[in-house]
Every structure is written in structure tokens, then in C-alpha cells.
Design goal:
By secondary structure, the chain is α/β, with parallel strands linked by helices. 44% of the residues lie in helices and 19% in strands. The radius of gyration is 23 Å and the shape is elongated.
Length: 331
């Protein structure tokens, strides 16, 4: 083969690829991407934030919404039992992959359609049986894991700095997997021994009778609550914060949402950051990568948010050194 003939072939291949991309864009049939979330979009700005951030991330990567892709959004409206039906809807629409807003959603998607590539944001992706390992997920699931080593210890130590006299802390663990629960609680126990705090464990979920839980907390004489685990429906978050306020119990929470609802403080990731990063996984899969070949990202960017109004309502004056660590103060 002559050198000039080889160059002509290379040019033809590149030209053909460009024409193919151009024809795909001109066809009026953008690639469909699925999204399954839990919380109603009308519920709060926080519920809409992941979708907006995902679109922002795709735009930053050069994707035009409605031209290069179409995001098919399905929301369970705080009812996880709807995940399988929503997955079937998206499968029938021919989506290329589904972005799952939580580990339970990803588990339901995978069980309903084992052939569907999934990008998930949630805790304990490996422990949920969705991936073989962080570095080599295998299968069809990858994404961003929020259960970073040390996060539970950091939260408990921050609670101790805010409330140095608190000696009895109730842990409300809503981790979606037993493995994630054991990891987080084991870390909390080690930190508690180091700082001289005793823990009282309650395994909870969206279906828990929280009135009964808080009645028991009062009997046990706990000084504060420490919520650990996955995302609970917003009505449940509000119930926890309301009961904690009624029982005059300050708390450390795993999402900023609780603080917006009146909880005292949170040390948490920001959804927008994580879903913007998730767009990178979507991009790679659309370009032909296998989800199982893409290492899972362990999220390690967290922010301390403090609600000083809530602290004042509880009769607390938070130490200045603690407040100086806050990334955000709600007054």
C-alpha cells in the first residue's frame, strides 16, 4: 500500500466519522438517558438540584440538551416501591443508561433490567452487590460512592466539638445496606471511645415509628442525636428534625436538607458537585466505555453547615472555635 493511499484511507475514516456524528445530530433523534430519583421535584430546590447539575456537567462536556441527548426523568415521589415500574418505562423508551440518584434506586434498576448500564450516586455501591470492587467494578454499574473512610468519625468529632459536655449520643442509622451500616457504626464506635462518648444505636428507615424512637431517647437520657446513612424522604427528615426540636435534642445530620428544615448542623457533600461529576461517567458510556471498566469515585468533599438559630432555640451557645470551621452558617 502506498503512503498516499494510506493517507486517503485515514482521511476517509475521519471524514466518515464526522459525517456520522453530523448525521446523528441532524436526525432529530438524540440519545436518551434515563434518570430515576426519589423526591418530588416540586418538593424543594434541593430535589431539583441533581438534575440541573447533571445537565450542567453534560453541557460542560459539549453536550447540547435536546440535540445530543434527551434526559428522561422519572421520580418515585418518595415511594421506592415505584422504582421497578419506572425502570421498565425507561427500558421501553430505549435509554442508553440510567442515572440513579441513590443506592436503593440502583439496586432496583439492576434487578429489574440486569442489562442496563447504571451510573449511581449513593453509599456502599460495592456492599450493595452492584460492583465487585471500587477500582474494578465489573458488571454494568459504576458511579460515585458517598461513604468515604473517616466521614463518620469526622461528623462525630464535630458534634463533640459543638457539644463538649454531651456524653450520650443516639445514632440513627438509615444506611441502605447492612454492610454500609456496619462500616459507619464501627467507625462511630472507635471515635466515641477516643473522645469519651457513649452511643445508643437505632437502626431506622423511612418506615420507622420515629415517635416511638424519640420517646425511647428521652427515657435513655441522651444528650444529642447523630444521624448516619442514606437519604430519607423529606417528610421523614422533617419528622426527625421536628421531634428532635420537641425533645430539645441537638443533632448532627448527613445532609444539608436537615439543617434547612431546622436541624442544628450537617457535615455533608453537595449534590450539585456529585451529579456534575456523574456527567463524566455518562459521557464515557455514551462514547462506548463499559460501566464496569470505570472505577468508582469515593467522594471526599464535604461542608460543615451550622444553623445558629436552631442552636439558640435549644438554649445552646456554640463554641467560637467550632463555628470558625463552618463553611456555611444559617441564622
Amino acid at each position: 500500500m502506498s503512503k498516499s493511499f494510506g493517507v486517503l484511507i485515514a482521511v476517509a475514516i475521519v471524514t466518515g466519522a464526522l459525517l456520522s456524528a453530523s448525521q446523528q445530530r441532524a436526525s432529530g433523534e438524540p440519545r436518551r438517558i434515563g434518570y430515576i430519583g426519589l423526591r418530588p421535584l416540586a418538593e424543594s430546590a434541593a430535589a431539583r438540584e441533581p438534575i440541573a447539575a447533571l445537565k450542567d456537567g453534560l453541557r460542560e462536556l459539549g453536550y447540547i440538551d435536546g440535540t445530543d441527548y434527551a434526559l428522561e426523568i422519572r421520580i418515585a415521589n418518595n415511594d421506592p416501591s415505584r422504582y421497578p415500574a419506572l425502570t421498565r418505562e425507561l427500558t421501553q423508551l430505549g435509554v442508553r443508561l440510567i442515572v440513579a440518584a441513590s443506592t436503593p434506586a440502583a439496586v432496583a434498576i439492576h434487578q429489574t433490567d440486569p442489562t442496563m448500564p447504571i451510573v449511581v450516586r449513593g453509599p456502599d455501591i460495592v456492599g450493595a452487590g452492584l460492583a465487585a470492587s471500587v477500582s474494578r467494578p465489573g458488571g454494568l454499574v459504576t458511579g460515585i460512592d458517598e461513604l468515604a473512610t473517616g466521614i463518620t468519625e469526622t461528623r462525630l468529632r464535630l458534634l463533640n466539638e459543638a457539644l463538649p459536655k454531651a456524653s450520650r449520643v443516639a445514632v440513627l442509622s438509615s444506611a441502605p445496606t447492612e454492610n454500609g451500616h456496619l462500616i459507619a457504626f464501627g467507625e462511630a464506635e472507635r471515635a466515641a471511645r477516643a473522645i469519651g462518648v457513649s452511643l445508643k444505636l437505632f437502626r431506622v428507615s423511612a418506615a420507622t415509628d420515629y415517635a416511638a424512637v424519640f420517646s425511647q431517647l428521652t427515657k435513655d437520657g441522651v444528650d444529642a442525636i447523630f444521624c448516619s446513612g442514606g437519604v430519607l424522604p423529606r417528610p421523614v427528615q422533617l419528622q426527625i428534625v421536628t421531634l428532635a426540636s420537641a425533645e430539645r435534642l441537638p443533632g448532627m445530620y448527613p445532609q444539608r436538607d436537615y439543617v434547612e428544615l431546622g436541624g442544628m448542623m450537617s457535615y455533608a457533600y453537595r449534590n450539585a458537585d456529585m451529579f456534575r461529576a456523574a456527567a463524566g461517567y455518562v459521557d464515557k458510556i455514551l462514547k462506548g466505555a463499559k460501566a464496569g471498566d470505570l472505577p468508582i469515585m469515593i467522594w471526599d468533599r464535604h461542608y460543615l453547615t451550622v444553623n445558629t438559630k436552631a442552636a439558640t432555640a435549644l438554649g445552646l451557645t456554640l463554641p467560637s472555635p467550632f463555628l470558625s470551621k463552618a463553611d456555611e452558617i444559617l441564622e
